[in-house]
Amino acid sequence: MPARPKLHLDKFVPYRLSVLSNTVSSAIAAAYFLHFGLSIPEWRVMAVLAANPGLSAAEVTARTAMDKVAVSRAVATLLAAGRLRRTTAISDRRRTHLELTAAGGRVYARVVPLALEYEHALMTPLSKRDRATLDRLLRILLGRAVELGPAHAE
Question: If both were cysteines, with which of 59, 79, 103, 129 could 55 make a disulfide (CB 3.0 to 4.6 Å apart)?
């Protein structure tokens, strides 16, 4: 019987990326919640809609790669808090558009400096060249992950 391959998590890139993402999200989530009452999914929805007003919830889901249920809950919470507005498309009554309200825009404007400050602190150990390389590698890996699609057991 052939030896089974071993998975070394400390070298397994998907695991390492997940740990990094979870660590960063957890660290910043505390500040978002403490200061603004926002969960990470709520913040991500707000950030995407600030940059792309008028998207549907499905489009937000696609852009964030978040679970559809997480986006739906975040949208519902933001609507209830008056931070989002949902309108029905005139051309297709089944389609809705989401956008930040004035109150949502004010919260967004207050969160952005905090987010940028955290990013700056996180990236401080990297040189300008390292940052450019990281950006390039992340784009390549994301493109490849999309191209590969979900992993399937054989």
Answer: 59
Q: Calculate ∠ Cα 15-17-22, nearest 5°.
A: 95
CA distance 37 to 103: 13
Q: How far apart are alpha carbons 79 and 75 in whole angstroms?
A: 6
pLDDT in tens, 78-131: 999 999 999 987 877 778 899 999 999 999 999 999 999 999 999 999 999 999
Residue 97 · residue 86 · CB < 8 Å: yes
Q: What is the CA radius of gyration of the chain?
A: 19
* 3-state SS, residue 100: strand
Does residue 106 contact residue 37 with C-beta atoms inside 8 Å? no
Which two tokens mark 69? 């249920």
- Give 53's contacts (C-beta < 8 A, 6+ positions apart): 97, 98, 99, 100
